[in-house]
Amino acid sequence: MSVDSINSLANSQSGVQNSQNIVFKNVEHKVGIMEKAAMSCVKCAKCVPTCTIYSINRDEITSPRGYLDLVQAYSQGRLALDLSLKNAVESCFLCTTCVTQCPMSLPVDFVIERVRVDVAKKYGIPLYKRFLFFLLGKRSVLNLVFSLGFYFNPCLFKDENGRKRLRFGFGNLKNRVITPLNRRSFLQRFNGLIESKNKDSMESNLQDSIKNEKLDSKENIESKSQDSIISIESNPQNPRKVGIYIGCLSNYNYVNVGVSLLKILDRLGIDAFIPGKQECCGAPAFFSGDIKNTTRLIKKNLDYLVPLLSDLDALLVPEATCAAMLLSDWHHALEIESEVFGIDNAEYLSKLESLKKKTFMASKWLHDFTRLDSILSKRKKSQTKITYHDPCHARKVLKIFNEPRNLLKNYALKEMAESSTCCGFGGVTIQSEKYDLAKKIGDKKAWHIAESNAEIVSAECSACRMQIDDSMGRNNVNATFKHPLELIAESLEKT
Ligand code: SF4
Ligand code: SF4
User: Is 4Fe-4S one of the keywords (predicted)?
Assistant: First the structure.
């Protein structure tokens, strides 16, 4: 449900005549983003049983309708923003399960994100987060930090069953499974135009012929005898070209995700363009209430990316969290900044609309707009057992869950129980200050993976990957994690 539709719903339910103000205790009170959603809740409790935090902390205060009650009281000045309220709102995993369960799709996640901005204003952003967000906004410094980390790898980390753990435990990091480090990031290795070498014999896209009405399908579509792949003659004058928005975890840690996407695009005869000055999407800062750092990154990205779009068929994002940021949360963040700081973001909201028209999660675009699905159908089947975890940002926010599964058809897919429940990543605060909560949710996910007997677990999200790898390591689950793009690229490489 959009904030606009909440406006009218909230007004009708509260009997409010003026859409922006209510009279509470004889004082005119400005109705903001938080209160509009809170006033619309009918307390039906449909959201409660599936709430991630409620499943481990059986207290209605930490449940969607509990949050909405608290937020309503806070926004009306009946409840102080004290440490208990701070603790409650920081315990939400922002998984959006409640939004999908609520008959009115009330945006509980958006409300929590909004309150976290007030928390950050009142209590400040902890030093470790300020340092992290500073690094995420300074690519040159972060490149250096990761390169140094790579060279000191053997001193810092030890290998245990193929997973890296810190040698020296401190705080919550003790025994954590750590993400891999690379000497050079994806964006340091790849930049600008990367032309496909397969354009002349392109196993190409039926969608091309639909999109380009000049093409006569009878003349241009031909069967390819070798492996019966329907092929369209290359159109060197107008090759397809897509941009890649890589995301920080794939840029620095899981570089093979981007490399796999390049291999797939190359195989499809599609040129790739990597915008070298792309910035972090701002998710870590946004989920921590640091709205200023978030919107600074959003605006830098919009100023840089939008002018590039006219030359691109699409902008592909191989990470669910980053894709959901661009397609959903950037709008929320710009709205919150306008409400809290009175900044007019109309120009950036308009740029964002242009960006959204061409932005897709990678699996969605490859599935819907190319012949990849058909090409994979002709490939050799693998006996490798895999299971798929649905990232919340993919399944619940972007409604993407069939596409990656279809593209993984060459593997023996065994669904785990509760594949769409949250993995327990939850963001920087949960991973650092509330790691015990992340562990409890992660343990359940690890057990479901173990029960599936899969050799490989896959999900189109590197934040889920970090959390699931850590959970599997703690629970001695031997499955390995691969991004669906890595599995698809491997499948294409097999004859
Ligand atoms: S976003 Fe997830 S954890 Fe937070 S209230 Fe909703 S269901 Fe619960
Ligand atoms: S499902 Fe929606 S309306 Fe019902 S209690 Fe939860 S948030 Fe309120």
Answer: yes
